[in-house]
């Protein structure tokens, strides 16, 4: 069953080598992510599953040791899911979100449990997300999730999706649900609106909601802001 979860954003800008001069602007997010991963370690899971959004054809299961890269962002930096563990060399490259997750785990020196990855296509319907989450919760006696995804990308005129007045209320609703570990509220997030607002977190968050069914986890919101006009949230469930 699910014993703990950490929710983190997944912009490549989290990686200082990618952010370059803007790296200090993300320090508060990085610090919150580090604290969130500490909650996962404290839960002593038997298995950690990293869940993040994936583009068309990029989804699916990724084994421990799967390779990711930030070369597409002009940085010669490679990561492995689960640190230095060796996975099958023929496996596909991690999608960007899982590469960020792998970087977070390497940065915090994760060695507390085996790690797997799951890339989720952002079009996955809420009910299918919940069903997939239930399956993940049954993978081991003590399962932890690192759930990656961003809120809306439409909070300001300079945001990737320009300004949309629905973005701030959408992010506020998501933040409240994550803070309270409110499963119905997470599952009620509208998939079409999330896609319009370019929110990559909707499907991973709803997978978390499915995984948490039948548990009694408490939520805590560690960070919520919109640098660069994109909603970033860090939360823990334990």
UniProtKB/TrEMBL annotation:
It comes from the Bacteria. This is Uncharacterized protein. Gene3D superfamilies: LigB-like (3.40.830.10). It comes from Streptomyces griseofuscus.
